[in-house]
Specification:
CATH architecture of the largest domain: 6 Propeller
CATH superfamily of the largest domain: TolB, C-terminal domain
Number of strands: 37
CATH class of the largest domain: Mainly Beta
Number of domains: 3
Structural class: mainly beta
Number of helices: 1
Length: 465
């Protein structure tokens, strides 16, 4: 399990996300907790059972159930279809997750099913149930071994290898109103729940955990310092310890409740729930981060040359001294010499040969013109090895793109953060090797074409001592 790195807030910088409300959200009803499934998503909703009928609990609240919506083209979706189970008519179903076998389902529902549940004063508690998904049917339902009639257990998320089940609970011994826990699958059964500890959990509410295949753990929290009420945070396990959670930027988070975040394997698209439109609705996000599939590796400019007097190399016993003048005021002696110029330019190199016996000097025995040029490329200036938490400054001041009118310098720092500008600051919170891309875009030419060039370099981030 591994981290996303911090999102750097800057009013002048673009958002790394674009969000849109899903078309299948239904009016004033609640649609929430999406799960990626095949070519669509599974989600929870308390929408009407039919055009005329509400399905409600004994105390009059509409029941939630699980629905499947599938893509029918690049933008449209099929009408959501309800999953069937023996619990549909009397109990809430969802949120949920799907095991790596794509058949086993873990979902939230009420624990107590007896006659006592018909008493309006009875407080039922949520637990996790396991079922087998066949088409749109949930079969072979069975309870999770750590359900309780005394506290809540729910909102499951299973790791991509099936070894860890994360969930939210207010069981005794927690750190806040609701904490994130996990169970490990050992010897064919789920081991006892483990609290993720004070790095992840706060005195407030932590819920809706989602373990991404990359090892990043997303969850929602109402802790202090957020953007709204419930906000989506991210953390990961590093060297056996959970890192400080970091809040996702707007527009994922808002002044309202934002929760139940899920993402594709490459983190470029995904879904989350928000009540920013007054009812709980599902939103789709797209990452606006540009990362070029083909990007040239930065070539360091070199103005160093090697000069050889070939005859002297062949006949190294001849009594001559070879005196080189490099055209920039520097000189050197020898049959083979090296010289580095301070920068690009046109330099006249001259070789004088001195006969050590007769003392005769043959001036300008050889002469040549050296045209030292810069590489034609965007250029990343800045140190390439830092410590975690240390701020570095990067700039594109030495970019050499003759004939370009540059419109934008775009930086992708390799940790899902971006900046725009010729000179930028960056801080990496976690050690590792990050591939930084600088994408330079030219102004649109008279024919409407836009030129673009990309260069990349690695930055090594070391652990703080």
């Amino acid at each position: 399990m591994q981290q996303f790195a911090s999102f750097e807030a800057n009013a002048q910088q673009p958002s790394v996300y674009k969000v849109t409300r899903m078309s299948f959200n239904e009016g004033s009803f609640s649609d929430m907790a999406p799960v990626l499934y095949k070519d669509g998503i599974l989600f929870c909703s308390n929408r009407r059972f039919s055009a005329l009928t509400d399905r409600t609990t004994f105390d009059g609240h509409r029941l939630y159930n699980i629905y499947l919506a599938e893509k029918k083209d690049s933008s449209g979706w099929t009408k959501p279809v309800e999953l069937n189970s023996e619990r549909n008519s009397l109990f809430n179903n969802g949120p949920m997750c799907i095991a790596p076998d794509r058949k086993t389902v873990y979902f939230t529902s009420e624990v107590e099913t007896g006659a006592i549940t018909k008493n309006k004063k009875f407080k039922n508690h949520n637990g996790i149930f396991i079922a087998e998904l066949s088409d749109t049917d949930l079969n072979s339902l069975r309870p999770f071994k750590y359900n309780s009639t005394q506290y809540e257990v729910g909102q499951p998320s299973i790791s991509s290898d099936g070894k860890f089940l994360f969930f939210a609970s207010d069981m005794p011994g927690g750190l806040g109103k609701s904490d994130i826990y996990y169970c490990e699958f050992i010897n064919g059964e789920w081991a006892a729940p483990v609290n993720l500890g004070p790095k992840v959990n706060s005195p407030g509410v932590e819920n809706y955990p989602y373990m991404h295949p990359s090892g990043k753990l997303y969850f929602s929290s109402d802790r202090q310092g957020g953007i709204g009420k419930l906000d989506v945070y991210i953390t990961s396990l590093y060297n056996g310890k959970w890192e400080d959670p970091m809040i996702l930027p707007e527009p994922i988070n808002s002044k309202s409740d934002d929760f139940a975040f899920v993402a594709s394997d490459n983190l470029m698209t995904g879904y989350f729930t928000s009540n920013r439109s007054f009812s709980d609705d599902i939103f789709r996000f797209e990452s606006t981060i540009i990362r070029m599939a083909s990007c040239d590796t930065l070539v360091e400019n070199s103005y160093c040359y090697r000069f050889i007097e070939e005859n002297a190399v062949k006949f190294d016993t001849l009594p001559f001294r070879y005196e080189w003048k490099f055209g920039d005021g520097a000189k050197a002696n020898g049959s083979v010499v090296e010289h580095c110029y301070n920068g690009p330019g046109k330099y006249i190199v001259q070789l004088d040969v001195v006969n050590l016996i007769t003392k005769v000097v043959m001036y300008n025995e050889k002469a040549d013109t050296i045209l030292a040029t810069e590489e034609v490329q965007p250029y990343i200036s800045g140190i390439d090895k830092i410590k975690a938490g240390q701020q570095i400054k990067l700039n594109a001041n030495n970019t050499n793109l003759p004939g370009w009118k540059i419109a934008q310098y775009y930086w992708n720092f390799g940790d899902e953060t971006i900046r725009i500008g010729k000179e930028v600051d960056k801080t990496y919170s976690k050690p590792g090797k990050y591939n930084v891309q600088l994408i330079v875009t030219g102004e649109r030419d008279p024919e409407g074409k836009v030129r673009e060039a990309c260069v990349s370099k690695n930055i090594i981030v070391l652990q703080q001592p």
